[in-house]
User: What shape does this take?
Amino acid sequence: MNDDLQTDYLAALIALHRGLDRQGPGDADFARALLRELPPLPGRPRIADLGCGAGAGALLLAEHFRGEVMAVDVVAEFVEALGERARRAGLDHLITPIVADMAALDWPPACLDLLWSEGAAYNLGFERALRLWRPLLAEGGIAVVSELSWFTDAPPEAALAYWRAAYPGMGDEAANRRRARAAGYEVLTTSRLPGEAWWRNYYDPLRARLAAWRGRDLTPAERAVLRETEAEMDLFARFSEAYGYTFYVLRAAEDGRG
Ligand SMILES: C[S@@+](CC[C@H](N)C(=O)[O-])C[C@H]1O[C@@H](n2cnc3c(N)ncnc32)[C@H](O)[C@@H]1O
Assistant: This one.
């Protein structure tokens, strides 16, 4: 893809996700269940949601903990949407929306008790993201990071071929546990996001959006986004037993080793 098409493609991808609750698969009840099972956090935990999109996670975290959440995304439009949603929910005094690159945060070491990141670490690579974020965690700090993961060591060939091209670094859960330990975390638990949550909270709203797109003239970039989003959904419909989002619940290891 040349640079112009790449820029147009990203713009089309952002437009496709504009105004949606979520920009990736996730689920509020599932997230709350994970939060209830976390080891005790300080009374007023310092929290960040990295790659927050329009803030489904940040809103839930602020509501759950009644604590302050720094919410970071590189796409200004999503961050603005989060600001608006926080105001509407009466949570704007708790949420700080920040437009920034989550790979280059100039925050002080040990400034977080809980780092949350849904569907975003892959942009940096799972292990790289975990390594970059590890210094931000206070002693005993917790990271909850979801990552697209193989659920089997023998994935179907069609799924393997698709993800080998789309996300070459995708690993199975055992590999991701090893990566987390290598990046300085203890792996507390792993939980798979149920496949229905992908449809209900992400793909179905996207499908409705794509149906509206089909009724109008599309740019080449929009056509590419439409084609690829449909291909991704078709693949998930066929192979959701073989892969999905696993939430890795991690604790900063004392000596920086898992
Ligand atoms: C699949 S979306 C998930 C968004 C949100 N966490 C959710 O679950 O709805 C991934 C997000 O990561 C953001 N992102 C990608 N690279 C980033 C970076 N380097 N720094 C900050 N955000 C980034 C994207 O803009 C996008 O909003």
Notes: The pocket of S-adenosylmethionine is lined by residues 22-24, 26, 51-53, 56-57, 72-75, 78, 101-103, 118-120, 123 (CB under 6 Å). The radius of gyration is 18 Å. The chain has one domain: 20-199+244-252.
